Amino acid sequence: MSQEMFQKERTLKMRERLIGQSCRLFFPQDPVKIVRARGQYLYDENGTQYLDCISNVHHVGHCHPLVTQAASAQMELLNANARFLHDNIVHYAERLAATLPKKLCIFYFVNSGSEANDLALRLARQYTRNEDVIVLDHAYHGHLTSLIDISPYKFRKLEGQKEWAPLPDTYRGLYRRDHPNPGQAYADTVKDLIDEAQRKGRKISSFFVESLPSVGGQVILPSGYFPKVAEYVRAAGGVFVADEVQTGFGRVGSHFWAFQLQGEDFCPDIVTMGKPMGNGHPLSCVVTTEEIAGAFTANGVEYFNTFGGNPVSCAIGLAVLDVMEKEDLRGNAVRVGNHLKELLKQLQAKHPIIGDVRGVGLFVGLELVKDRVTLTPATEEAALLVGRLKMKHICLSTDGPWNSVIKFKPPMCFSLEDAERVSAEISHVCESDYCTSVFLQNLKMPPTRNNRNNSPVYMQPANLLMRLIAKLE
Amino acid sequence: MSQEMFQKERTLKMRERLIGQSCRLFFPQDPVKIVRARGQYLYDENGTQYLDCISNVHHVGHCHPLVTQAASAQMELLNANARFLHDNIVHYAERLAATLPKKLCIFYFVNSGSEANDLALRLARQYTRNEDVIVLDHAYHGHLTSLIDISPYKFRKLEGQKEWAPLPDTYRGLYRRDHPNPGQAYADTVKDLIDEAQRKGRKISSFFVESLPSVGGQVILPSGYFPKVAEYVRAAGGVFVADEVQTGFGRVGSHFWAFQLQGEDFCPDIVTMGKPMGNGHPLSCVVTTEEIAGAFTANGVEYFNTFGGNPVSCAIGLAVLDVMEKEDLRGNAVRVGNHLKELLKQLQAKHPIIGDVRGVGLFVGLELVKDRVTLTPATEEAALLVGRLKMKHICLSTDGPWNSVIKFKPPMCFSLEDAERVSAEISHVCESDYCTSVFLQNLKMPPTRNNRNNSPVYMQPANLLMRLIAKLE
User: Fold this and answer.
1) I need a labelling partner for B426 at 20 to 30 A (CA). Which of A454, B89, B168, B419 fits?
2) Where do transmembrane segments lie in this chain (chains A, B) (predicted)?
């Protein structure tokens, strides 16, 4: 297969002409054309190698040969739909069940994290017969109509008038690390929302939460938060849905699922999974309890998902689990994640702009602030850093409400050397004269204000980057 | 790859234990385990071959080697997400654009027909700023929360209190083949709904319709219907959405898209596509006009679909188009579809139970009736026929509001000989004494009644079949 069909300029023009512009590119002012990838490395049309720190989907490494082989072998043999009996779907469900608390034992296979979250919503509503959903501020649970309704990250920009619980961010949130029990305190904010909803005569179907909020800014939740929230939500007749679409499959290293960081005894009522599951193949899943699945069956309506659980998708899912075990990728996530955090904390000690370093396993965030007391988000500086690292052929991106958190969610084969390389380059950017000057003195571009609610609107990272680069060169 | 991991009985037990029971099996009383497939043939764990008359998803034939090769080659090379620039997505969009009216030129790639229809709904609502959707009775547009809201086939069973336009079924509907202009008459029913909605102060965002209603009973729409409905819907400020998830990609033979049967000049505002697109791989798409895409971009919110439009999905989509052309599968659909209809019409002339034979290309329906005057649906007989054909190793199934329509939507490589085989077997069932007697005399099992609305509830085909077989043997 030829690696390039069109010259890059032509590809870009065709894309602008043919693909909806709501589908954005990375580095939109100077997009990267990637034609080949292996492990944690991407290659552009000239053969230039990029270190990939963000493709959490390509969990066991881009184009892992064992995954490709499993897919090809099954594609040659059979890819019928799941209305025929087949071994792969049941074998895969059994393998997944072995990673989960016993109570979570009924599986539904679908094609995307969004489909999984939508089905979770249907399960929760059918089981509880209630409608309302409580979510966290800045949450994102998918691109479907039903999910935008429960994703402040999206619907705020569209309507800006729904309610959500505060994000339990102990770095800059309502209760911080100096609070004696932030888990309890944040759980109580959910309790308050429930009470308020009930006073209005509304009933709670569910609490939806990412086990580690991702677009919210790579947030590590305080201990005790989930068990307490689950207690409140269940008392109100609702169920607890853990969205593991970004965080599952051993990314946190010490555990297979990030919700397990909240204690071995804690068990959600529904768990959704997605991105890393098929190493890039569209494969996702919902798992729940017998009671909840039973209520869904009892409505008498078939659930048919055309591609969900087909033999090829399941063969790929099984291969991903095999590679994770064979290559001890959870162990690697612990080792490399800890080393990366250590290196970043050393940088934090030297550079005041690095306000926080946090993470578990290979889910790591580096939060930039203009000032360590006010914690003013260093949005422009984060964009600049990402842009400078791109020039060094390292792919990173930002997250969080102000795009001031540098996120690391690399393929799980990310190495100690990769961690050292990226940390050295960050250090270099932070130390270089021009950069320090840009960071700390010259950059006086106040954000514009949103007409409707006067909230600050920061420039798109890429636009800003181009202006800064123009200044520097 | 070994073809069987577990004994069939064990697979079934594991499935009952691990997979949500809302996910039903074909032939639930005696499910078929399929371990291998090629072209239009399925093979069970004992090597028994089944003729597949229903897998429209496996469009160019199960496990087509060119599709598998294209997938494997691209999986080895790259499967990054569509935020990086890549040739496959733009090349594929251009190839699809060549099959569509010029106006339909902006593409969004997603993973399932349901995701496509949900996005179409978002596009329509964003563009028109209206909410209401008009659908046809018995329509099914997907399994997502937003789509069950617009799918009478599903929501009737759940709530039974929404509104929809009558299904333009000229065999048993409001206006029949003896009507001078059923297309206009049915279009006027949509106009009436629009008027009523507007009197209530509601505003129409869209008319959603399958270009040939499938679960509604393999219905061929009367000519003139779409252009007239589109005129009414647009005059009310709405857009016309053609759901081609089941019917697109040349299934009708004479045209690439089934909406084109309504005239070369007719052009929907949005088209959704899915099932056959990736020959079993989760791949779907929405195409729309520049104006509608522009309105969606203008809301400022990114649309990101993790797997949508990735290089592997697009390589597979391209391979499907290549095979269709190389093997002239549209030509085959015309030839074989016509022959199949001809053979079935010969059976109709002999057997009063065959009330109607209809179809275009390889989208064919055979409607069974207890009586050609009253058109009482022959639900039990249809279940029996499907069951008897299964014993002859032919996979068929029923559709339509009363499961009385035998549907043919085979892989597009279905042959003249396959058509002859299935028609001969149907003939054999219709002719055999025991069957005639079951069909026409002995079967006096009136349907039970739904408590809520007194509509007839027919037995599940498989349960019924087992009772009948028990009687006969």
Assistant:
1) B168
2) none
